[in-house]
Amino acid sequence: MKFQTFSFSFVKRFHLALLGAGGVFLFLSVFPLYSAEAITVSPPRLELAGDPGSVINSEFKVTNDGTQSAIYYSQVENFEAGDESGNPVFVPAREGLATWVKVDPQFSAKPGEQITIPFSIQVPRNAEPGGYFASIFVRTTPPPSSANEVSIGARVGALLFVRVNGEMREGVTILEFSTKESKRLYTSLPVEFYYRFQNTGADRVKPEGSIIIKNLIGITAKNLNANRQDGSVLPRSIRRFESAWINSGGGQEDVNALPPSETVDGFFASAKSQFSNFAFGYYTANLDIRYGENNNTATGKYRFFVIPWQLLILVLIGSIVIWLVLRTILKLYTRRIIKQHQNTNFRK
Q: Which of 13, 30, 36, 161 gets the most CB atoms within 10 Å of its CB?
């Protein structure tokens, strides 16, 4: 009886294992695993220009970084400013530049092969002068045929910045220039700045310039790059640019320098940080921006204080201790001189 029970249990488990293995095999057959396919598109950005009614011819390169031959598919979409961080939002090609682009819909590449993909842009005769923006994507799967269809696969794109020549309007406004959280009083560096740049013109604008920080008597304490990321502002959009005064010592702030991710806690740790990057007093930050073909200017100004009170308390305590020590030494020296003088007079 015990042997029959053991045999039945073993057979049952064996059948369950076979069913499980078959289920896994069926799942993998119906839903194959997707492996990441490496694609490189270069250059990542193309800046082109043309007149209304003209044809612009250009090209980009696609490299198959994988280990197998691959078929790629092209897809063109317009892009616009998504938020004030400068991240683009891609929209379907229903109008605008994406509908002007002609590119092969499908091409292939061997492992490690780099191929050149030509394309053309047919600028309409009635196109308004200004900037137009799109992206040519290279996909590992065909693009969806409708908005309701979902296509799974990797895609890498080259951004197109196309300028239609002609007389166009330029308009820029500095909406805001301030420090983070609009602080006016700091105990130490860094001091983080930002400004909001609005482009109301017809073409993209890349602001260039600096934030010059001066102390109370007009001496430059630091010079900051006003566009550290070398970013542009698309037409009819707002972009926020950030910069920071991190290190003391004057001169130009390193473009790659970033504010520390952790705050300094503790009295003595704060005093040490204030001593390492010393700043003290009343400062004025002057924003000076240049933009456009005519080097138009936009300016801003912000005033703030840096009062390193932890370091000042230690300096004050140290000064009092030194004063007391010197005062005591002076008293002892004076008493000694008086005593010596009295002894000399007594002998006489």
A: 161
